[in-house]
Amino acid sequence: MQSAGARDTTRRRVLDATSGSRDPVVKALKADDASPHEQPIRVALDAAKPEAAEPVRAPSISPTILVQDVDRRFGDRMAVRHVSFTLHPGERVALIGASGSGKTTLLDMLAGGIRATNGFIFVEGVDIQAMSAPALRRHRARCGIFQQSPVLVPQLTIHQNVLVGRLTHWHWTKTLASMFVTMERDHIRGLLDNVGLGERQFDMPGQLSGGQQQRVAIARTLATEPVVLLADEPTASLDPVTAMTITRLVFDIAARLNATLVFCTHWLDLVRTKVDRVIGMRHGKLALDAPPSEVSEQALDHIYAGSTERIG
């Protein structure tokens, strides 16, 4: 792991090298500056502009996130190796790759949940690992994570489960009072209306189907008021019809919030027309970074070689 002095020196070098470029990662990965590590199959985004102009999006309040040569080691196992890319505000990105390729670890590092062993993750030019504890908490609170399993508390009502997402914004006294008094009834009802479950506000989780429970988890995430959405295979345990419904809901919410979305999935065809970009991982390394129209069967075969998880 790099020393603090080495990280500060490298951090300044990275920021100096990338200043003045619209896409710092593309600039940093020019051929004459190329890392000796394996390079991804990279296709310039500007080379694949659609013939028909898409609706103009309003400016996003999501931050620019720059991932620079990031590693993450767990003991003797290297989960993520030399990964670099930039997430621009409001981008919709599909993250694909077989199980064990490093996708979940990457999402956890983007959210500030775990630290990189080496390399840097800059959020609006600030290295996550250099953030103060309050700043890191604010960043985590701005990242909404959709998990594979909704993980609802069975002893709490749907209202209370969604209310959990508000706790990061509250003083501890209000959190304590919420155990005895129904808080933010109308606000929580509005969040549940957004996912089609307003009428189930005071039901118990056991009364809902798997797909409905995933919707509650989405409403709970929305309660945190996120500006970056990180979806870690939220449809993995759902039937195909429900999976399509939940996927559509997540992308609709991202569009409504104009938030950056990274959607992890094995079902690329389900999201191909909804994303701006596809990032693929294999054995912890970046193996693909391209517009969806430029993702070939050959590239997908390489990413999923030895795995039967790919759908479509």
Topology:
Blueprint (H helix, E strand, L loop, with lengths): L3 H15 L5 H5 L12 E2 L22 E10 L2 E11 L4 E5 L6 H8 L7 E6 L2 E2 L5 H10 E4 L11 H6 L8 H6 L7 H10 L15 H13 L5 E5 L7 H18 L2 E5 L3 H4 L5 E6 L2 E6 L6 H7 L9
Parallel strand pairs: 1-11, 4-9, 4-10, 7-8, 8-9
Antiparallel strand pairs: 2-3, 2-5, 5-6, 10-11
Helix pairs in contact: 7-8, 8-9
The CATH topology of the domain at 4-144 and 230-303 is given as Rossmann fold
CATH architecture of the domain at 4-144 and 230-303: 3-Layer(aba) Sandwich
How far is the N terminus from the C terminus?
Answer: 40 Å
CATH homologous superfamily of the domain at 4-144 and 230-303 - what is it?
P-loop containing nucleotide triphosphate hydrolases
Could you walk me through the main structural features you see in this protein, from its secondary elements to its overall organization?
The chain has 11 helices and 11 strands. It has a domain at 4-144 and 230-303: P-loop containing nucleotide triphosphate hydrolases (Rossmann fold), CATH 3.40.50. Helix content is 33%, strand content 20%. β8 (228-232), α9 (240-257) and β9 form a beta-alpha-beta unit. The chain has a 7-stranded mixed beta sheet with strand order 1-11-10-4-9-8-7, sandwiched between helices. The model is unreliable at 17-56 (pLDDT under 50). The chain has 312 residues and is an alpha/beta fold.
